[in-house]
Amino acid sequence: MAPNVLARVLNGDSSIPTPYLQIIPARLHDHCRYKVAHADYPGVVPRQGETVRGVYVAGLTSYNMKNLDIFEGEQYVRRRVKVKLLTVEGNIKGEGHVEGEQVGADTYIFVAGEELLEDTEWNFEEFVNEKMYRWADTSHEYADLDNAIDSEDESGHDPTGGRGVRGDMDNKLKGKQKEEVLGSAV
Questions:
Q1: For residue 55, what are the β-bridge partners?
Q2: Quick check: helix, strand or coil at residue 119?
Q3: Alpha-carbon distances of 32 from 19, 66, 185, rounded to whole Å
Q4: Mean pLDDT estimate for the chain
C-alpha cells in the first residue's frame, strides 16, 4: 500500500504522518497481484511461483487493523502469511532485490471471485502516476477534475470501489472515529 494511502486509512487524512510505523520493503512469495476489473485497486491471490512486491508495516495497533479491515471491505479476507524483508531494493521489474529475514505478516487476499480479476498484473507505478489522487489527496486542487470524472462516468461506476477520498469507506472511517471519540467521552 502506498504510504499516503496508508496514512489516510489510519488517520483519516493522507497529510498526517505516521512516524510510529516502520515500513520495510518486502516480498510475498507464491502470490500474484492482479488488476481488479473496472477498478483502480489490485487483488492478491495465491499463485505458485509468483511473487508480490509490497511493504511490511510494523507498529500497527488494533485500531489501525480495524481501519484496514474497513478499507479492504468484503472483497478481501485478512490472512497470516510469511514475507521476506528486502535488505536491498532492486528495480521496478523486481531485478536486483536482495531478501533477508522471513517474518509473519497479515495480508489481504482477494476472495470476491477470480472472474473479477483481469489477466494482467496490477501496476503500482501506473496507480501512483495516474490514480493516486482519488485515494489519498484531500486537497481542493483536484475537485474540478473529480467532478469532471464523476460526470463523464454515466454508469455511476466508482473505480475506487468506495475506498477513495470521497467514497463510502472514507465516510465509514470518519463516522467510526466520531463514534469512538464520543463513546469514550464521559
A1: 25
A2: strand
A3: 29, 24, 44
A4: 81
Burial of 12 by CB count in 10 Å (0-12 exposed, 13-18 middle, 19+ buried)?
middle
Q: 3-state DSSP call for residue 85? A: strand
What CA–CA distance (Å, rounded) separates 118 from 111?
A: 14
CA pair distance 125, 141, nearest whole angstrom: 22
Which of 23, 26, 70 lies closest to 168, judged by CA?
A: 70
Contact 24, 58 (CB under 8 A): yes
Q: Which of 60, 100, 59, 105 is nearest to 82 (CA)?
A: 105
Count the neighbouring beta carbons within 10 Å of the beta carbon of residue 105.
Answer: 18
The least confident of 4-8, 11-15, 20-24 is 11-15
Residues linked to residue 104 through DSSP beta bridges, in sequence order = 82
